[in-house]
Specification:
This protein has one helix and eight strands, in the order ββββββαββ. It is mainly β. Strand 7 and strand 8 form a beta hairpin.
């Protein structure tokens, strides 16, 4: 995931571990509550309330079983997803792996 710079329309302040944006998939204009858990290079979760900037890896977890069912058919390895705050795209991510049912 890459957070956009403020001049690209991104956030003015860093996100923190525990951040809860929405996600928009390629070729779909619906928003889904799929929340990131930011991880370091070894796959260990970054501590809560740690500022997150630039490029970072994240595990994306659906908010609920209903969201998982609705979104699972829409996510594919290689897709670009938009991280949204309301109508504003604040980060872009590339799907590198899909866990669980799809």
């Amino acid at each position: 995931m890459r957070f956009l710079l403020p001049e690209e329309g991104g956030r003015l302040s860093p996100a923190m571990q525990g951040y809860r944006p929405d996600v928009m998939f390629q070729n779909d204009d619906a928003l889904y509550m799929i929340h990131p858990e930011f991880i370091d290079a070894e796959g260990v979760p970054i501590p809560k309330d740690t500022p997150i900037t630039g490029r970072v890896r994240a595990l994306m977890r659906p908010y609920s079983e209903e969201v998982r069912r609705k979104s699972s058919a829409k996510v594919r390895v290689g897709d670009t997803i938009k991280i949204q705050e309301g109508p504003h795209t604040v980060a872009l991510a590339t799907v590198t792996e899909v866990y669980g049912d799809t």
